[in-house]
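User: Please fill in residues for this 441-position structure.
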């Protein structure tokens, strides 16, 4: 059995819903993971923000507008009177719930409940549409099997046991539909896997059922060798290893949730990125195979803050780095890049929630400099640090200042830190140096 995931754009219009139906109707059993319809999660986040700020009138106006959109979708999508009535009743119940919530006291549980409604709506509507089309479809509510533990990690044993039990005990179906993104926490409250988490849901499910393959269907024809939003004539990459894909996802390749690869790699299940509008295209296949050496792709991650920690006491002091890392551990703030010299350490973070407190503690034994508005540019490929043409990428040093370079920490990744205002130029210049110069083997 395969697991197919479709994002919000893929189910964002009537035509796209019909296209997805055609893709999945190939006679093979599968589990289909759906995101909320495009625009819905943003609207729900806006509603949650209004509730938090006690702007009940604005929240209800947004709820009314979103309800109108869904009524129009149902009206156009359904011809069967009974199914249309059933879906309208469900949709109305969801929006009545949102209206009731809009005047309640805000907390994290309320936020999670609000943003979960998008996936509940899309999966119910789509399942009933498949039934109208004569397809044997069943809804598998993610809240019946998807759970995270107290560390906010997937509870894999719980998921595997409950999902397989539900499938065994459910009515026979060719296609099972479930929600991406949403889950329960260990207390039984609604939680989620964060924005973009539907990809993660798909590979968690794939590992739980030992799927033949996980397919991530989206609005682009695979993972590209550079960011097509900023660089012209980028190309889809036909094959990536798990390690290469994980590096690119973490460092800014927006097509894939950063944690998506982990469950698939552990279970050795291939992941294929596919284009909803052109299903015949190969896309990008991610598996355990390594193809070619040299740089395959470039990605960029914004919102980076660089911290330089300087102290004469660092010289020959074996406990200095330990003190530094303990501060970041105390405030649960991960570090992306790190470089060291005799008397200084430079590192980067992307979570500045506790930045002021971190600086206060570091300044007790060092001088601290902070540079905000930085971007990490990541170059990824198999064994690139050993490739005989990799040095050509350093031509970019002629173009503008590089704040940090991370080289050698991974054989598959070289990272450069630049000011965000230089990011687009860096991506384009690196594209010329790397790909136009035939750096890929």
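Assistant: Residues filled in for all 441 positions:
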């Amino acid at each position: 059995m395969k697991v197919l995931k479709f994002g919000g754009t893929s189910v964002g219009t009537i035509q796209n819903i019909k296209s997805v139906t055609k893709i999945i109707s190939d006679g093979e059993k599968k589990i289909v993971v759906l995101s909320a319809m495009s625009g819905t999660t943003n609207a729900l986040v806006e509603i949650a923000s209004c509730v938090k700020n006690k702007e009940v009138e604005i929240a209800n106006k947004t709820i009314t507008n979103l309800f109108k959109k869904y009524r129009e979708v149902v009206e156009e999508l359904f011809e069967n009177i009974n199914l249309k009535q059933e879906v309208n009743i469900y949709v109305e119940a969801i929006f009545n719930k949102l209206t009731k919530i809009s005047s309640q006291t805000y907390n994290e549980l309320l936020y999670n409940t609000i943003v979960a409604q998008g996936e509940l709506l899309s999966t119910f509507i789509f399942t009933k549409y498949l039934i109208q089309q004569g397809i044997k479809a069943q809804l598998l509510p993610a809240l019946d099997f998807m759970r995270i533990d107290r560390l906010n990690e997937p509870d894999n044993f719980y998921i595997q046991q409950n999902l397989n039990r539900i499938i065994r005990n459910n009515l026979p179906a060719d296609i099972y539909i479930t929600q991406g993104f949403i889950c329960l926490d260990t207390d039984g409250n609604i939680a989620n896997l964060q924005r973009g988490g539907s990809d993660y849901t798909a590979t968690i499910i794939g590992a739980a059922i030992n799927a033949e393959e996980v397919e991530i269907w989206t609005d682009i024809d695979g993972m590209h060798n550079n960011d097509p939003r900023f660089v012209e004539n980028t190309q889809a990459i036909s094959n990536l290893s798990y390690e290469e894909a994980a590096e690119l996802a973490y460092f800014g390749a927006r097509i894939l949730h950063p944690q998506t690869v982990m469950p698939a790699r552990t279970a050795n299940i291939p992941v294929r990125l596919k284009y909803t509008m052109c299903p015949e295209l190969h896309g990008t296949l991610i598996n355990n195979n390594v193809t070619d050496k040299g740089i395959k792709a470039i990605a960029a991650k914004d919102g980076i803050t660089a911290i330089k920690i300087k102290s004469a006491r660092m010289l020959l002091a074996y406990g200095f780095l330990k003190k530094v890392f303990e501060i970041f551990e105390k405030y649960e703030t991960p570090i992306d890049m790190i470089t060291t010299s005799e008397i200084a350490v430079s590192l980067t973070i992307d979570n500045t929630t506790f930045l002021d407190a971190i600086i206060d503690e570091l300044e007790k034994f060092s001088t601290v400099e902070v540079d905000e508005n930085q971007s990490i540019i990541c170059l990824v490929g198999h064994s690139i640090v050993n490739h005989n043409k990799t040095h050509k990428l350093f031509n970019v040093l002629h173009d503008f200042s590089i704040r940090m370079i991370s080289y050698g920490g991974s054989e598959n990744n070289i990272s450069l830190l630049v000011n965000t205002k230089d990011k687009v130029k860096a991506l384009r210049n690196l594209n010329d140096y790397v790909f136009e110069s035939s750096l890929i083997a």
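For context: The mean pLDDT is 91.
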